[in-house]
Specification:
about 150 residues; 3 helices; Thiol Ester Dehydrase, Chain A; alpha+beta; elongated
């Protein structure tokens, strides 16, 4: 049997990062549709595994230098286009549109069989270990834009 091996953290493509996730009962409300706040979980998994695929370990960033580095969500805009349902297989897509200074901008989508369900724009603030803005190191910025 020829099976395609899929990494738990998804894959990097020419269009950005793709992560496949299934909708479970716990993700839905009484109607069987995904509860609106659960989409934040799917988007977060997409961003986290995107970093992982880029070789960026968030837990190590706090000790990257004497200042430390942390990513925090500063702003998020979400357009809900269509609902997902229990047992749907979703694809979370993430791409960086800006990485520099003290922020990054990520565009994310959640799709089911190619159909757009969610479109999100996420502004990530880059801060030090005490929460003050700091510049994203050039080498790290290059990973997000490369």
């Amino acid at each position: 049997m020829n099976q395609k091996t899929i990494s738990l953290c998804g894959e990097l493509t020419d269009e950005g990062h793709r992560l496949t996730q299934r909708v479970y009962y716990e993700d839905t409300d009484f109607s069987g549709l995904v509860y609106h706040a659960r989409y934040l979980h799917f988007l977060e998994r997409g961003r986290t595994d995107y970093l992982r695929c880029l070789g960026v370990e968030q837990s190590a960033l706090i000790g990257i230098d004497e200042e430390g580095l942390v990513f925090v969500v500063h702003r998020m805009e979400i357009d809900f286009k269509a609902p997902a349902r229990m047992d749907d297989v979703l694809e979370i897509r993430t791409v960086t549109t800006k990485a520099g200074g003290a922020k990054m901008v990520l565009e994310q989508e959640i799709r089911r069989a190619g159909d757009l369900l969610i479109a999100a724009r996420v502004v990530i603030a880059v801060v030090n270990r005490i929460g003050r803005p700091r510049r994203l190191p050039e080498g790290l910025a290059a990973r997000f834009l490369g």
